[in-house]
From TrEMBL:
The keyword NAD applies. Signal peptide: none annotated. HAMAP family: NADHX_dehydratase, NADHX_epimerase. Binds 1 potassium ion per subunit. In the C-terminal section; belongs to the NnrD/CARKD family. Belongs to the NnrE/AIBP family. The keyword ATP-binding applies. CDD domains: YXKO-related. The gene is nnrD. Homotetramer. This is Bifunctional NAD(P)H-hydrate repair enzyme.
Length: 506
């Protein structure tokens, strides 16, 4: 068993891949062995998390997730714990593994009760074994009335005792990180301050790390039930470990500024165009590119030449028509407003490497010719990274932001295929997708990043990584990891602003 600390890369497996692994492992093991291992792992972690628990309450569902809970009950009872189980399932309808687990729990003398024991306190432990990977969005034949299940879930979530979820927090979709309808915690449940842990069994699943998954899982553990050898090909990867080394300090001594590439930020609509000045977005991206290690950073503002001097002397002003396209990595769209449309045909056709952000994406979404020009870049061998947030992704895919969020991995992959380039779908658990590559989920970052301009900073940092010679997928993964890590290491006593974040980058 390992605690997932987000410090190393991890293979992720979808429900289908996990089922395949389970089938392969089960066929070479004695009957019920996997579930016994699952129950034992759960009991071990329970004892470690709540060594002084006077009571352990286990709420078990009617499927095999409930079976894991029943196995854990038998182990914990044998370890001398005061265990009670609520199991609204029935032996005659339980799947075979869960039926065997029920028999073991009964034989061990586990107490069955309709609800939690009275007086559960912070030292006690609750175990959520209601639903695992068998969750269906519309349960076609639930063996337990959904209302009973929801009532149990509510008692688990609002109890003061430590909460350990078996395999998944019940109701969370393991593939997407979204709660099924009716399962998302309400305000009172979300505000409950109990310690929460999740023990993922056999595999780590993508939904644990994106969308609502991070909040749902809280602290995460993984046990492969000694079945690692049966793992099929990964569905996705979790980023982690050391980033590709883009640091100047480790570069050859005779490097010069040209060795680290030129970034040209193109964006920042002026105030006069529509009464909305957005030059700050371009400066933020430029500052991030500079602090991220680009050799030279130029800024081409879309402000009709109103700005005469950059806010930092390291930055250079350029007109779009004065850019040396074969040399530059363009970061285009930050604060670009409507003005960016006029320059996009040139940028898409000419930029040697391109990060397309914000209004650059919105323009492509609403203009077929620009979309075709974007796709054409791949045929011309010109690398591109798109950096949409969910609403921008929805515009590009002609769907709603809710549909994007409903399956972030699929949405990012669909965008990457449609535009034949790398895509960073931003938000909690950013997804990085590139045609022909395993998609990545980024584990760093936190809600402090939910402040204006941090997306511009990310675009600039990706530009710096591309300019330093990383391939688009690697550049995007490295920059997203570093951007989130900067927020994770942010001093508690300082508020995070985008300009301070840009200056904090490496
Ligand atoms: N079979 C085995 O050998 C192993 C199974 N494992 C456990 O088994 C779990 C998967 O078991 P199952 O496939 O039985 O699935 P689950 O136990 O996760 O869920 C299936 C049950 O929940 C009900 N249900 C599903 N969606 C519902 C909804 N929206 N509302 C109300 N009820 C709903 C179904 O009717 C069914 O009774 C894993 O998550 C894991 O915990 C692990 O122990 C590994 C080994
Ligand atoms: N809750 C969160 N957890 C992790 N990252 C977040 C969270 N909220 C925002 N971010 C990150 O912050 C950045 C915001 O970008 P974006 O939405 O484009 O904002 P803006 O346009 O204001 O710069 C993205 O990198 C996104 O992934
Ligand atoms: K569960």
């Amino acid at each position: 068993m390992e605690r997932i600390n987000f410090d190393q890369a991890q293979a992720l497996h979808s429900v289908a891949a996990t089922r395949a692994m389970e089938a392969a492992a089960a066929s070479s093991l004695p009957a019920h062995a996997l579930m016994q291992r699952a129950g034992a792992a759960c009991a071990r972690l329970a004892l470690a998390l709540a060594p002084h628990a006077r009571h352990v309450w286990i709420a078990c569902g009617s499927g095999n997730n409930g079976g894991d809970g029943l196995e854990a009950a038998a182990w914990l009872h044998q370890a001398g714990k005061n265990v009670s189980v609520t199991w609204p399932g029935a032996p005659e309808t339980a799947p075979p593994d869960a039926h065997a687990a029920w028999q073991r729990a009964v034989a061990a003398g586990v107490v069955f009760a309709p609800g939690p024991p009275p007086g559960l306190g912070p030292h006690d432990l609750c175990i959520d074994a209601l639903l695992g990977i068998g969750l269906r969005s519309q349960a076609d034949a639930p063996r337990m009335p959904p209302t009973a299940l929801h009532a149990l879930l509510r008692q688990l979530r609002t109890s003061p005792a430590t909460l350990l979820a078996v395999d998944l927090p019940s109701g969370l979709d393991a593939d997407t990180g979204q709660y099924a309808a009716g399962f998302a915690p309400d305000a009172e449940e979300a505000a409950a301050s109990t310690a929460r842990h999740t023990l993922s069994l056999l595999t780590l699943k993508p939904g644990l790390f994106t969308a609502q998954g991070r909040d749902a899982c809280a602290s995460l553990w993984h046990d492969d039930l000694q079945c690692g050898a049966f793992a099929p090909a990964a569905t996705a990867e979790l980023s982690g470990g050391r980033q590709p080394d883009a640091r100047k300090a480790r570069a050859p001594h005779d490097s010069h500024k040209g060795s680290f590439g030129d970034v040209a930020v193109i964006g920042g609509e002026g105030l006069q165009a529509r009464g909305m000045g957005m030059t700050g977005a371009a400066w933020l991206a430029a500052s991030a590119a500079l602090h991220g290690g680009a050799g030279r950073v130029m800024v081409a503002l879309l402000d009709d030449g109103q700005t005469l001097a950059p806010p930092w002397p390291e930055l250079m002003l350029r007109r779009v028509d004065a850019l040396d396209w074969p040399q530059v990595t363009a970061v285009c769209g930050c604060g670009g407003g409507e003005a960016v449309r006029a320059v996009l045909p040139t940028v898409l056709a000419q930029a040697a490497r391109l990060v397309l952000d914000a209004d650059g994406l919105n323009a492509v979404a609403s203009d077929n010719a620009l979309a075709a020009a974007l796709r054409q870049r791949a045929h011309a061998g010109l690398p591109t990274v798109l950096t949409p947030h969910p609403l921008e992704a929805a515009r590009l895919l002609q769907c709603t932001a809710a549909q994007v969020q409903a399956d972030r991995l699929a949405a990012a992959q669909a965008l990457a295929e449609r535009y034949a380039c790398s895509v960073v779908l931003k938000g909690s658990g950013s997804i990085i997708a590139t045609p022909g590559q395993l998609p990545r989920i980024n584990p760093t970052g936190n809600a402090r990043l939910a402040t204006a301009g941090t997306g511009d900073v990310l675009a600039g940092l990706i530009g710096a990584r591309l300019a330093q010679g990383l391939a688009p997928h690697a550049a995007a993964c490295s920059a997203v990891l570093a951007h989130g890590a900067a927020a994770d290491h942010w001093p508690d006593d300082r508020s995070l602003t985008a300009s301070a974040l840009a200056a904090f980058l490496q």
